[in-house]
Amino acid sequence: MAEFGDADRQAPLRVGVAGLGNVGATLVRILQKDGAELTRKLGRQLEVVAVAARSRSRDRGIDISGLEWFDDPVALAKWDGIDLFVELIGGEDGPAFAAVKAALEIGRPVVTANKALLAKHGVTLARLAEESGAQLGFEAAVAGGIPVIKTLREGLGTARIAKVFGIMNGTCNYILTRMGNEGISFADCLKDAQALGYAEADPTFDVEGFDTAHKLSILSTLCFGYEIAPDKMRVEGISNITQHDIQVAADLGYKIKLLGIAERTDDGIEQRVHPTFVPKGSAIAGVDGVMNAVALETDHVHELLLAGPGAGGPPTASSVLSDILDIARGTRVPPLGVPSDELLPYREAPHRPHEGGFYIRLSAKDVAGALAAIATRMGEKSISIDSVIQRSDLSAKAVAPDGSPTRTVVMITQQTLESSVREALAQIAADGFIVGEPQLIRIEKL
Amino acid sequence: MAEFGDADRQAPLRVGVAGLGNVGATLVRILQKDGAELTRKLGRQLEVVAVAARSRSRDRGIDISGLEWFDDPVALAKWDGIDLFVELIGGEDGPAFAAVKAALEIGRPVVTANKALLAKHGVTLARLAEESGAQLGFEAAVAGGIPVIKTLREGLGTARIAKVFGIMNGTCNYILTRMGNEGISFADCLKDAQALGYAEADPTFDVEGFDTAHKLSILSTLCFGYEIAPDKMRVEGISNITQHDIQVAADLGYKIKLLGIAERTDDGIEQRVHPTFVPKGSAIAGVDGVMNAVALETDHVHELLLAGPGAGGPPTASSVLSDILDIARGTRVPPLGVPSDELLPYREAPHRPHEGGFYIRLSAKDVAGALAAIATRMGEKSISIDSVIQRSDLSAKAVAPDGSPTRTVVMITQQTLESSVREALAQIAADGFIVGEPQLIRIEKL
């Protein structure tokens, strides 16, 4: 084994950074500012020598005058003046993919924070890395500042993971937290999140759950050893969550969180992203605001929860840097936990009854027999109802298109199949007793 | 850099395990059972070849017939038939220290779960390891199944840690959780914990906070780069916590947890272990039962919380195994995060005002003017009182030694120095208005 201070470790590790947004600029600042401490930690000098970005002149609060400039990230990735390539451009294809591919093809290690790229091309890139002997780090791609990739790849011994779930989108968690604390609507929270820079101008990718789905698919592969399958899951966002849902959840002792959940079953993998009732006292319910959290259930380690900042320049740059340090130290692990040719083809589990039951919110016509008719349809599908709530202070009296008044009905079911609930609701809608779309939220016992 | 599958990686890594208690036996079972998966993960065979323990004949549910047996762990540590020595004997001195020292002296890597050993001899052992080029892993020594050592050593880049705190003793957390959920006394909970094997026959080391102090001192060194100083801290356990304290905490929106807390200040390090009021909605308040949690506050990563099982055979063995895998892969980091000769001498911070304020419970004589006299003494020390509670359902009417009746008075203070509070309480006691020892618990804003 090599000693600290070996001669071959003394050559500085030269880093090229493509993409100088918030994370990229923060990384360059840290590498320039903390150089001495890094050298002390590592026994080797670490130096950013080149950058690529769209605009050379933009003020990013960092001094790039002494660095080699590249307009083309692929040219930087291939340049023989660097030992390690950092991709912080973003996007699942285009220059990010081209540059990462180019670096790995020539055996150059890569660190990226790009979850979309990983979700789409992760297996291809891992294979490339293994073939050329390069390392591929992506700690920052999932849950920004939380070292969940390292924990999955290196921290669990042979513990067999049964389930992974978490809060992986800070925008959604910020919105849900404020809705819960301040009683304001989804739309108002979203507007604030956009003003504060926590949400994009087009928030669809975040609030509809697709970002969570990308991250979950990467974790799922690291946990279960199947190929990455970001499209093999039901994805539901938070844009339909109302104050009524939040308040009923609170009354019942729950908070609503957008969770990504992947489970290993005997018949394959179940992956899903959806708003979820989580018990108020649970550790994950305490993860508020822009914070993220990932929970792992294994045979050996009953449950492990990692919580921290999911985004933001400094935490994300910190994760990128920990990958760089690992590579500089010579740490070698297969990018996806096992060699890519040992990954199993993804196998989707058939639908199963959901243990925790469901929260159902309906806008029912305020006519005699409506509730009885609804209850009958549920009974026909063998769905047991735990409780029905029609609290007057919450029942938003409204009027159906045909002029009849409506009232909000909330039902909590026992363990049942989601398909049974959906079939019952379709039947109830066909009976003409409800107005608009019903709301359906899973309750997790956690 | 070496490739997976290099010829020199093909030689099996031969492991010797000293100490076959719960963790040791579980580790041997995993190494024997999961051999194929380990080889797949590692690209190298991992094999337990020798063991040492007190009794050869004891039934541990594992087959040790094919393994080399040693009565003396030091002889095993030195035996040239192993490549890596695992110490699971326990104890801060004696055979554990002798064996670990013997292995490191000949450059043999060591993995240990022994926090007492690390707290007392960690710097000496780290120096030995660095001198001989051996690795020293101790992931399992702090917070059993939670990968906090790895996160501190490798997962945070150059993030500068400002504060580390956590729940590091499962026995205490189990007792406090049950006291909170079931309204039973400390003594009854302790009896149950002993019956369930969560507490030792002599529980002093756990319930008086010393175990937490050992673990905190190790984390503190990894966080701040000072020498390990387990004796440089105020340590207070949970044996004086009453149902009254638990219930007032609940009424005010808090839970009581035994926390170890270490902070970097401009004037040195502050380390302390004591029961603490933590806000009910916080993530750490959700960490219940035998679970542990460690929270890190850094400049870059605002707050990171790692929660999971703090003890038990499988989680602890899993952490031991992750250290073994790291060593087998050739991962090289200084045991204490930085080379041991760069550790700074420990510097104890002077006492500071405590931001969160204090909870104070007194048994006051039920005489006219008592409360006014108490309030006056607090005022003399410039202590602002947020609220005073004398709830009738909780005031345990009692009788002072002089025959006068007493009632329980609870005060919540604003930010103040602990020394001021203690001085005021001493004065109040001298005035003769209270009976017995006052209870003082810190409130943390977290």
Automatic annotation (TrEMBL), chains A, B:
SUPFAM superfamilies: ACT-like, Glyceraldehyde-3-phosphate dehydrogenase-like, C-terminal domain, NAD(P)-binding Rossmann-fold domains. NADPH binds at residue 115. L-homoserine binds at residue 200. It is an enzyme of class 1 (oxidoreductase). Residues 359-443 form the ACT domain. Pathway: Amino-acid biosynthesis; L-methionine biosynthesis via de novo pathway; L-homoserine from L-aspartate: step 3/3; Amino-acid biosynthesis; L-threonine biosynthesis; L-threonine from L-aspartate: step 3/5. The active site is at 215 (proton donor). InterPro entries: ACT-like_dom_sf (IPR045865), ACT_dom (IPR002912), Asp/hSer_DH_NAD-bd (IPR005106), HDH (IPR016204), HDH_cat (IPR001342), HDH_CS (IPR019811), NAD(P)-bd_dom_sf (IPR036291). GO terms for molecular function: homoserine dehydrogenase activity; NADP binding. NADP(+) binds at residues 18-25. GO terms for biological process: methionine biosynthetic process; threonine biosynthetic process. This is Homoserine dehydrogenase. It comes from Devosia ureilytica. The lineage of its organism: Bacteria, Pseudomonadati, Pseudomonadota, Alphaproteobacteria, Hyphomicrobiales.
